[in-house]
Each structure stands twice: as structure tokens, then as C-alpha cells.
Amino acid sequence: MAKFKYLKPSTLQEALCFLNGNESDKKVISGGTDIMVQLRNNKIDPEIIIDISEIENLKGIHSRDGFITIGAATTLTEIAESDIVKRYCPILAQAAASVGATQIRNRGTIGGNVCNASPAADTIPALVALGAVATVVSVEQEREVLLEELFVGVGKTAINSNELLTFISIPQPTENSAGSFFKLGKRKAQAISIVNGAVQIGVNAAEGKFTDVHVVMGSVAPTVLRIREAEESLIGRSINRQNIENAAEIVKNKISPISDVRATADYRKDVSGNLFIEAMSDSLEQLGVDVSYPGC
Predict the structure, then answer these.
(1) Cys-Cys crosslink for 191: which of 8, 53, 180, 187, Cβ 3.0 to 4.6 Å?
(2) What pLDDT was estimated at residue 292?
């Protein structure tokens, strides 16, 4: 492992001052579950490591003013077990619980999972489906970025070198909404996703129509992909199997997976459509809506 300077700020302002320095290559860690592996394998060679794990105001989960707010240094275990998250954003609790092993979830954080920007990251599809917003801070300014706009490539985000992800905010879903997270791997646990994703829907059960649909897929493109064409094909339409299957075809046609050691591109396309149909059916079942209604 190459040598580097290790800094452990105790306040957010101290961390931002470190990030504002002149050194060209700095890395931020909290749990370190990704970066430490990269360091040991000599895949990165930073001049400075900034450890934010003891900054208390970057931790915690809160519900206020119509939003669920999660600190970037909150662990995946805390999110998976949070009563607030399970009540309002169950697909995020499911996604957090699917990451790695217990030891990884106990140390790994939501900020790290987001900033690592893997196209196979499990929490990102759920966050994007929920309309999450990232708060990014530097010495000079604070800005908010819609999470789906944060990712610019494999392992790359729109966060500048002098900025820090501090919070993720999720609009509190309405009562007539539900969602489903899905993941397919070679094993039932501790596996990198062959395909993952999430759907979050709203319905008018009395009219039997979709009022809102978010469809997000992972492991099928260089970044997590929101498929708006599939969403638009359902919003305002009747809730029935045919419309859902038509949307599944759009999903298959809009993704651009690769073939690798885990699966072929064709397999990823086919299974993505099937997983989408299952997720939509599960979401509708949570709302007490028959997937074949009205008429199928």
C-alpha cells in the first residue's frame, strides 16, 4: 500500500477545510469498505485520506417537514433497521439490507455507497426511485443535486474535489404509493448484482389507474438508469397486465448491459423485463390492487 497522509476531522467545517487544500488527490472515507480494498490493491494512490467517521452531525435518520433526511455517514445497518425508513421508504431498507455481509453493512455508509458510483450499487436504484436529493457542501457553498443527476460515469460523480456529500433527503411518499426493490446475483447473499433495480408507484385505486411511476435499473448501463419512457407509458393508464408487460418491453429496449463473468448482455435484458413485472405486481399487491384490474 502506498503512503498517504491521514486526517481525521471532528467537525464538518474542519473536513471542508481539509478538502479545500491544494493537494491534487484526496479521498474521503467513513467506513472505508471500498476504498481500503482499492488501496490494498494499489488501484488508487491518494495523497490524503480524510476520515469523516467521527463527525456526528453527518450521522442519523430524521423525519421532518415532509422529508426523510439521512446523514452521509449513517451505516447501511442503521438504515436497514430504521423504523423511519421501514415505514416510509421500505425499498431503501430492503436495498441497504442486501449490501454485502453483516460486517460490511455495519461499517459501510450510505454516502460511501453513493459516492463510489458503482453501476451495481444496491442503494442507488432505490434512492433514485424515491426521488432522493443529495446535499453537497464546500467551504464556499452548499448545493442540492437530484440524485439521478449525480452520476456521470462508472465510479464518477458530479461532486467536486473540494465538496463533501453531507445528507440525502427523500420526499416522504404519499399513502397511495408503494414500491419494490429487486436484486439478482449468483448467490442469495454477498453477491454483486447481475441486475438490480427499484420501482416506486402511485395509484388511484378507485379509477384503476397509475398516477406516478418511477422505474430505475442498475447493472445494465455505465450508471444507474432511470427509464422515463417506461414510466410515461404507464402514468395515467389503466392498471392491467398488458400495460405492465408493454412497459417491460420498453425497459428491455432502453437498457444497455454488457456481457461479463456474471452474465451475458442478452440474459440481463431478458431478466430485467421479468424482474420489472414482478416488482410492479408486488408494489400493486401492497396497495391492495389486483394486477389484472380493470380487465385483462
Answers:
(1) 187
(2) 57
CB contact set of 279 (below 8 Å; sequence gap of 6+): 179, 180, 181, 182, 197, 198, 199
* Domain co-membership, 62 together with 121: yes
Residue 57, classified by CB atoms within 10 Å of its CB into exposed (0-12), middle (13-18) or buried (19+), is exposed
For residues 191 and 251, membership in a common domain is answered with yes
Beta pairing class for 5-7 and 142-146: unpaired
Q: Give the tens place of pLDDT for each residue, 175-219.
A: 899 999 999 875 454 567 889 999 999 999 999 999 999 999 998
Residues 137 and 188 in one domain: no
If asked whether residues 78 and 159 sit together in one domain, one would say: yes
Q: Tell me the pTM.
A: 0.92
CB atoms near residue 287 (< 10 Å)? 15
Count of C-beta atoms within a 10 Å radius of residue 185: 19
